[in-house]
Amino acid sequence: MRILLCLFLAFATGRALASGFALNEIAPGIYVHRGVQEDSSPQNLGDIANIGFIIGDKCVAVIDTGGSIVIGRKLRQAVVNATRLPICYVINTHVHPDHIFGNAAFKDDHPVFVGHDKLPAAMAARGGNYLNALKRDLGAATQGSEIIIPTLTVKDVLELDLGGRRLTLKAWRTAHTDNDLTVFDEKTQTLWLSDLLFTEHIPVVDGSLKGWLSVLKEFPGIKAHHIIPGHGQPDPPWPQGLQAESDYLNVLLSEVREAIKHRQTLQQAVDTVGLSQRNRWLLFDSFHRRNVTAAYAELEWED
User: Which of 54, 49, 142 is closest to 99 using CA atoms?
Assistant: First the structure.
């Protein structure tokens, strides 16, 4: 009896487990693997972003694939463990390597690779450097990771039918990057925000600080029951879960503007702006100075 109980509990806590690769079914048919809150390293092999998949009646859509082919293979095995349905779409929410380098693990499934209209250009511009950094930082275990350009792009809004399940993909104006894509599952009202929302992990500015703040103002109007950020705990309270990120970005905006107004140099701004936020975010020292630099470059010549 005890053995049967253990087997049942193992099944109930998440049937899509692959070699320690844990997933949570946060809503019916919505599986999320939570990345670790770390910089990419040979130990985690780029498993630092929230990734997962959505199962319809006809086929499966994968949402981001992780930071290396190793992570992509684990995600693919989790799909195989969860369903016999084919993988028809692999959706990349933006260009950053921790979200795209698992793509190659899905090549043999012949899915349609989907991304923002500006994603192909971003991949072409950055792909070589990303691959070099991957080999340098993560080592031989990631061999086979590659840049795969989307074959279907989204300029505004696109609907995908998984069979009894409709996904709405929206391409946003420049915010976290210039190629941010969100995915909304109407059946469960799950909104996959990816890196347009960071929880716990400090937000990373790689597009437009002002653009990101503008986009954030639109999110509370979306009626969603489940939220999946790009990093951090899934299912934060909605829309309250946006507040910490908004506060950080607004501090960055106001303090960089003040630094520029008082004719501080970039280095002076980097050394002083936003330090009150340090204890509120993981990986602050890895990304905050870069954020200040990006904000200063954006705001230096504003009217």
Answer: 49
Mean pLDDT of 119-148: 96
Question: Which pLDDT score is estimated for 14?
Answer: 40
Quote the pLDDT of residue 303: 73
| 105 backbone φψ class: left, alpha, beta (φ>0; ψ -120 to 50) | alpha
Give the domain 12-237 fold.
Metallo-beta-lactamase; Chain A (3.60.15)
Each residue of 79-91: pLDDT tens digit?
999 999 999 999 9
Query: Per the structure block, which two tokens stand in for 281?
Result: 């975010």
For 21, which DSSP code? B
Report the C-alpha gap between 136 and 150 in whole angstroms: 25
- Assess whether pLDDT exceeds 90 at residue 15: no
DSSP code per residue over 202-242: PP--SS-HHHHHHHHTTGGGS--SEEEEEES-SS--TTGGG
Domain range annotation of the chain: 12-237
Which of 71, 57, 5 has its CA nearest to residue 28?
A: 57
State which H helix or E strand residue 3 sits in: helix 2-12
- Global pTM value: 0.93
